[in-house]
Write a structure and sequence with these properties.
Elements: H1 3-13, H2 25-36, E1 55-60, E2 63-69, E3 72-75, E4 94-97, E5 101-105, H3 109-130, E6 142-146, H4 150-159, E7 172-175, E8 180-183, H5 189-209, H6 217-228, E9 231-233, E10 238-240, H7 251-261, H8 267-272, H9 278-289, H10 292-308, H11 315-326, H12 330-343, E11 349-352, E12 359-361, E13 364-365, E14 372-375, H13 377-384
Length: about 375
Amino acid sequence: MSLFYLFHTFYWRIPSMQKPRLGFAPLIAILALLCGCKTTRSDIAAIPSPADMRSEISVNGRVSTLKHIDIQHVGKQIPLTYSDGKIANSRGYDWWVSKHFALKSDFPENKVKLYLELLEMSYPHYVELFGMAPAAIDKKRIAVVYGSSRQRTKEAMLDDGFLRGVHKTAGGETMFYNRAGYNFPSHRQHHQRYIVIHETMHAFHMALNGHSTWAPNWITEGMADAIASHVYDPNKKQLTVMVFDRAPMNYLHLGLQQYHQNGQPSFEAINDDPSLKRGLNFFIVHFLLSDPERYQYFKRFIGKLMDANPHSENTLPTANALLKQTFPNWPQLEQQFEAFVRSATPSFYIVDEHGSKTVLHIGSEIPKAKHLIVLTFIQTFLLHMS
């Protein structure tokens, strides 16, 4: 029996002479409104602790296979995350949680579960790349926001305090002040998956020590682009990350273009360049991971750099010094990087429907391509749907 019903019955049983002159009509109206509002639905479960949820992923190299995942819909209850209370509820959005992630979304359930599955399959690779997990990951989750349209994601971003506005062309944004990744849906299924893996990598990065400016661009964007370059098999629930050569969004091709267009820069020059060159950053990360010994030195360097915790203008010179301190033979490393780029051969090159080849740099075609992909309108559409 509702509070409104009890009060209403009691009120009208009072003799009219005993009723206050002003009446209770306004109070009855307020009670009616309050009784019609519910802060949580009865079918919404309490937020489970990360420690009480399962995420069973089989990892073989760069391939993750989902064995079991717990996903819980928690409605408007805001989970404890590394955003530290700087993320709010939004109109039409609900919260969903898995073991390591909290997703605020207005997508239907099947889409929400897909993205949480992809993120749990990506999580072991995030940890492996940085060589560590965020502190208190058994108590907190990494926050992710994914709206059903660009406008809906923008609304959620403004709710969460993006007072500077929203980037007009970005596929997503991750803000340092609340360490949450925001994702704009695109028309391609591959990019829809790519962007949530990429932006959540940034959020993971920030969760390690509160911000991301301790790392140069080739780490911040290079590692996010590298891990998000993926192939996904929905039937096997299998995600392959760090794919070096794939279409579309081929960073190998872009890296070769930028390498020649920028005068074949050294590793040191790429580190010291504050501008964003995604292809070169992608190259550096894959180079460091392509040899087991070099990879171990890279992980040691990441740990030293995070311990040094430089900010802004100090980041690039600190990274430069630590690179040369960590890798025992810097001139040899530069030679190995040059050889790595020379050996990087795309498995295809692209021509448009008019027969024009994509070139590596002015006057030079991409060498030794193994396949020719002619991108007519229909073929482009089919590739983008993969």
